[in-house]
Design goal:
Chain B: Belongs to the peptidase T1B family. The structure holds two protein chains of two kinds. Chain A starts with 8 loop residues before the first strand and ends in a 5-residue tail after the last strand. Chain A contains four helices and twelve strands. In chain A, strands 10-1-2-11-12 form a five-stranded antiparallel beta sheet, covered by helices on one side. Classes of the chains: A alpha+beta, B alpha+beta. The interface between A and B is medium-sized, with 20 and 23 residues.
């Protein structure tokens, strides 16, 4: 299956005035693990991040194409993009390739700098937006990730608690997946700062 | 002749078409009912495809000066899903014979237990322990008779008999080869790299155990379908002994510890009196 060729998983969660987005770090070729430092989460603005699990080549290409569209937006509008608008840019980019799609299922997490409102959403590979209030997951172990998130998430978590919750959800989900893992990176985005942490995980 | 049919489990009693004596002695292979379905060939094909796991595992065994080392990981995967991290892949056939599991877990467990039964019957009939060559031949012949029916096994039979250490590789295609060093499963290529580099025939037992542990660890590190616990067994003249069972998650940080990040000293105000 193309979506599980390289492996990988991304989760994003909403907290109280903050969002967190986390991903594993593996790049594999079917069973063979090639890299343990593959970046799947990309910064699109000071408080806006997109995670791109799926086929690794499309991860890189879509990240680059999105950055280009974002830069053009900022040049024309002379302001930073809001997360909601950015989600529409992502959906549009994906639907343009409706009959030959990019094999990524993006996860977007950010804070609207004007209102301080946290925002998360994910899309399928052809751009259908899904904007829930709690958490979003995408990748090769979605079933495991959904189970972990459903069990651990609660509303209005403070940033440090949110970090704990999303880390545990991610790590325990990908410990049950042969195609993801080998390290984890977690970004916690608050109104005034972003904290990036790597998590010590099983390396098997 | 004693009538031992009372000892048979009920499923074996159902087919008395086979020779009555061999049924009673338990030396005949177990009989399996075929499904009562219109298109048997199509059904068999679908069943073979369903049970066909891609031997996602790493097992290895090698002969050295003091005996045989057998090692394996403990992960079971169904496609991408890790169904268990605590599978016993080294099966104790009897006190001086070990078998490894790769391929279908149920197939390996059942047929190696069956092998244990037949080895015991051999002992009772011949008043001496069966050789490793004989035990592996028994298993290979059984698997050959089920060739093409979808069994999936890549197992190594290791043990110590009167002629010293013995190691055979037996698989579900009916193959059986004797050898001094084997690794089986999706992680075998990674294990071979470490094993072949570090191997010396005159290692001590501890060195051999550490080599096997390292080889399994490196396979779990690179292979997605291997992981969990690295178990290492040693088979010597007194029989087998489990030498270690280490979680490979912890082994990673033991072999490659994360260096402590140096913390810059904070600038402090110096009080002046």
């Amino acid at each position: 299956s193309i979506m599980s060729y390289n492996g990988g998983v991304v989760i994003a969660m909403k907290g109280k005035g903050c969002v967190a987005i986390a991903a594993d770090r593996r790049l594999g070729v079917r069973g063979h693990t090639v890299a343990m430092d593959f970046q799947k989460i990309f910064e699109m603005g000071p408080h806006l991040y997109v995670g791109l699990p799926g086929l690794a080549t499309d991860t890189i290409t879509v990240a680059q194409r999105l950055k280009f569209r974002l830069n053009m937006y900022e040049l024309r509008e002379n302001r930073r993009i809001t997360p909601k608008t950015f989600a529409s840019v992502v959906a549009n980019l994906l639907y343009e390739r409706r009959f030959g799609p990019y094999f990524v299922e993006p996860v977007i997490a950010g804070i609207d700098t004007k209102t301080g409102e946290p925002y998360i959403c994910n899309t399928d590979l052809i751009g259908c937006l899904n904007e829930p209030d709690d958490f979003v997951v995408s990748g090769t172990c979605v079933e495991q990730a959904f189970g972990m998130c459903e069990a651990l998430w609660e509303p209005d978590l403070e940033p440090l608690d949110l970090f704990e919750t999303i880390s545990q959800a991610l790590v325990n989900a990908f410990d049950r997946d042969a195609m993801s893992g080998w390290g984890a990176v977690v970004h916690v985005i608050e109104k005034d700062k972003v904290t990036v942490r790597t998590v010590k995980t099983r390396m098997d | 002749m004693l009538d031992l049919r009372v000892l048979e489990p009920c499923s074996l009693q159902s087919s008395l078409a086979a020779c009555a004596d061999s049924q009673v002695l338990g030396t005949a292979p177990p009989t399996f009912k075929l499904p009562a379905v219109a298109d048997l060939d199509g059904f068999q094909k679908a069943a073979v495809q369903m049970v066909k796991p891609a031997k996602g595992t790493t097992t290895l065994a090698f002969v050295f000066k003091h005996g045989v080392i057998v090692a394996a990981d403990s992960r079971a995967s169904m496609g991408n899903y890790i169904s268990s991290q605590t599978v016993k892949k080294i099966l104790e056939i009897n006190r001086y014979l070990l078998g490894t599991m790769a391929g279908g877990a149920a197939d390996c467990q059942f047929w190696q237990r069956n092998l244990g039964t037949r080895c015991r019957l051999h002992e009772l009939a011949n008043k001496r322990r069966i050789s490793v060559a004989g035990a592996s031949k028994l298993l290979a012949n059984t698997l050959y008779s089920y060739r093409g029916m979808g069994l999936s096994m890549g197992t190594m039979i290791a043990g110590w008999d009167e002629s010293g250490p013995g190691l055979y590789y037996v698989d579900s295609e009916g193959g059986r080869v004797e050898g001094k060093r084997f690794s089986v499963g999706s992680g075998s290529t990674y294990a071979y790299g470490v094993l072949d580099t570090g191997f010396r025939f005159d290692m001590t037992v501890d060195e051999a155990v550490e080599l096997a542990r390292r080889a399994i660890y490196h396979a779990t590190f690179r292979d997605g379908a291997s992981g969990g616990v690295a178990s290492v067994y040693y088979v010597g003249p007194q029989g087998f002994k489990k030498m270690s069972g280490d979680d490979v998650g912890e082994l990673h940080y033991k072999y490659y510890p994360v260096p402590e990040a140096t913390v810059e000293a904070e600038m402090e105000d110096v009080t002046t009196s």
